[in-house]
Specification:
By secondary structure, the protein is an alpha/beta fold. It folds into two domains: about 5-275 and about 475-505, 2-Layer Sandwich (Nucleotidyltransferase, domain 5); about 280-470 and about 515-555, ATPase, nucleotide binding domain (Nucleotidyltransferase, domain 5), CATH 3.30.420.40. It has 19 helices and 20 strands. β1 (about 5-10) and β2 (about 15-20) form a beta hairpin. One of its GO terms (molecular function) is D-ribulokinase activity.
């Protein structure tokens, strides 16, 4: 059999990108990005111009098909390969990014009669307007002692499926009624390619409170939320939930024609972006924490048992790699904190100095900050500029820098911010490790590991663990292509398991970041101080951050 290929499509917040991958070695032969024509819709609905409320974030489902229409032919053309050698296609998506569909599986926003109602559109993962529903979901679950709550670190997020569905019911009961099903966008795109609706175990588990043994929470719970939701899971959330790597069906002839692919090739069941990255860095066994590092960090880890870990986002059987429990945690701001400093709080002389040397400001600050030894700045920061997602799960917490003097310099503050995010990751590492889900090494992908070596060394020193870095430009898309290879199967030139695919296709760079024992000692001392501040401000001893927010609100 000659060379075979699959295509992975990564659906991000702003754009979708397709990658054509050589199955013999995981080489990314060609890639192409399609920015979403309608962007993130957070102010006005396209067409009608209807104004959206604060905290809304929508997308246009047609944009997802546009990515397939433009990017798939583009990678085929760039690669010059014979399309007949592409044996499968897989996708990964932001999540929970969800939409209501009619009995034909068409988005309600495509219906001219419903298109002016914002609730008929796709709600993007960062649509945060369902917080009142999320609060009630948590309150009622806690009061009823629902068994699912500990699996989500004690809190269900407003970003997730049930809160978003309930917001639709609360604010637009007519849309709720018209919806035949609510789908994750990843499952909807797969259904467009195959003609069959199936749900994937990753989004069902992490975002819709589905459990492999117990299924969804019981009817009594949903009835306690709102009697109209009693039968939600049998009706509008119905559908088979199938594990990652399974084929969702063959590619429909009309979609094959649109993309320039052969009809009938395997289409892998949908997946989530951060989770797809895990096998793409070769992680298919426990003990290795994968960090998708960018504006925020998603932490993913495998385990052999279902353990309760404070503040994790969730644990789902088969949720990342079939056969294992997949754990997810996260920090809601990382790169965003560095960007805040650079954009909002940096003296002009630093920008001028960087310009003069032809460096960007981050590069200049990194070089200068690297000249300090751990502890030498005398600074310590709490990394809560965008609240705390793990382990405190509290969006009301805010950032803090301690220890400043008249002599404090910008690179010292920059270094303290890098260190603060590393301490935040150590909290997560410790929470897993101490609860029996071991973390022996770290694996990093995303934009940050390529951009800032000092940051990576600090993470190695603070966590006292070696860090392996992805050797792929598009790690989630590579993961999606690997799952497509598994959906196609070895007989077609793919692989029978994701373990086999990872063995041949996953790559990390040869160079790793190893902890420096001298630095580890100093950071251990600083981490003790970080932990004291973390608990003092984050666990209720001093709620000054929340009081400040209240005072601010009353002053507005
Ligand atoms: N040299 C740098 N060091 C640290 N952070 C950086 C550097 N350059 C850019 N950033 C930060 O990286 C983030 C973007 O990361 P990236 O992985 O590209 O994005 P995304 O999370 O959107 O995929 C921004 O928040 C930016 O502040
Ligand atoms: O929530 C998840 C994964 O669980 C992500 O899809 C969401 O945070 C979006 O991440 P990106 O901005 O695409 O890195």
């Amino acid at each position: 059999m000659g060379k075979k290929y699959t295509i992975g499509v990564d659906y991000g917040t702003q754009s979708g990108r397709a990658v054509l991958v050589d199955l013999s070695n995981g080489h990314e032969v060609a890639d192409h990005v399609t920015p979403y024509p309608h962007h993130v819709i957070d102010e006005h609905l396209p067409g009608s111009g209807i104004r959206l409320e604060h905290d809304w974030a929508l997308q246009h489902p047609g944009d997802y098909l546009e990515v397939l229409r433009r990017s798939v032919p583009a990678v085929l053309k760039e690669s010059g390969i014979d399309p007949a050698d592409v044996i499968g296609i897989g996708i990964d998506f932001t999540a929970c990014t969800m939409l209501p569909v009619d009995t034909k599986g068409q988005p309600l926003s495509f219906d001219p009669e419903l298109t002016d109602n914002p609730h008929s559109w796709v709600k993007l993962w960062k649509h945060h307007a369902a917080q009142p529903e999320a609060d009630k979901i948590n309150e009622i679950a806690a009061a009823r002692g629902e068994a699912f709550l500990p699996r989500y670190g004690g809190k269900i997020s407003s970003e997730w499926m049930i809160a978003k569905v309930w917001q639709i019911l609360d604010e637009a009961p007519e849309i709720y009624e018209k919806a035949d099903m609510f789908l994750e966008a990843t499952d909807w795109v797969i259904a467009q390619m195959t003609g069959t609706i199936v749900r994937n175990s990753c989004t069902a588990g992490y975002k819709a409170i589905w459990h492999k043994q117990d299924g969804y929470p019981g009817k009594e719970y949903f009835k306690a939320l709102d009697p109209r939701l009693e039968n939600l899971t049998d009706t509008k959330l119905r559908g088979e939930v199938i594990p990652l790597g399974t084929s969702a069906g063959g590619l429909l002839p009309e979609m094959a024609e649109m993309m320039g692919l052969a009809p009938g090739i395997a289409v892998a069941v949908g997946n989530v972006d951060a989770h797809a990255a895990v096998p793409a860095v070769g992680v298919v066994t426990p003990g290795k924490l994968v960090m998708a590092m960018g504006t925020s960090i998603c932490h993913m880890l495998l385990g052999t048992e279902e353990k309760q870990v404070e503040g994790m986002c969730g644990v789902v059987e088969d949720g990342i790699i079939p056969g294992y429990y997949g754990y997810e945690a996260g920090q809601s701001a990382v790169g965003d904190i560095f960007e805040w400093y650079v954009e909002e709080a940096l003296p002009a002389y630093v920008k001028e100095a960087a310009d003069k040397e032809g460096l960007n400001v981050h590069q200049w600050l990194e070089r200068e900050a690297a000249a300090y030894k751990p502890g030498q700045t005398g600074l310590l920061a709490l990394d809560w500029w965008n609240g705390n997602r793990s382990v405190l799960v509290d969006t009301d917490l805010t950032g803090m820098i301690l220890g400043m003097t008249l002599l404090t310099k910008p690179p010292e503050i920059y270094r303290a911010l890098l260190e603060a995010t590393a301490f935040g990751t150590r909290k997560i590492v410790d929470a897993f490790h101490e609860n029996g889900v071991s973390v022996d090494a770290l694996y990093a992908c995303g934009g940050l590991p390529q951009k800032n070596r000092l940051l990576m060394q600090i993470y190695a020193d603070v966590t006292n663990r070696e860090i392996f870095v992805a050797d792929s430009k598009q790690t989630p898309a590579l993961g999606a292509a690997m799952f497509a290879a598994v959906a196609a199967g070895a007989a077609a030139g793919g692989y029978d398991t994701i373990l086999d695919a990872a063995d041949k296709m996953a790559r990390v760079k040869e160079e790793t970041f190893k902890p420096n024992p001298e630095h580890v000692k100093v950071y251990d001392r600083l981490y003790q101080e970080y932990s004291k501040l973390h608990d003092y401000f984050g666990r209720g001893e001093n709620d000054v951050m929340k009081r400040l927010k209240r005072i601010k609100k009353s002053a507005e």
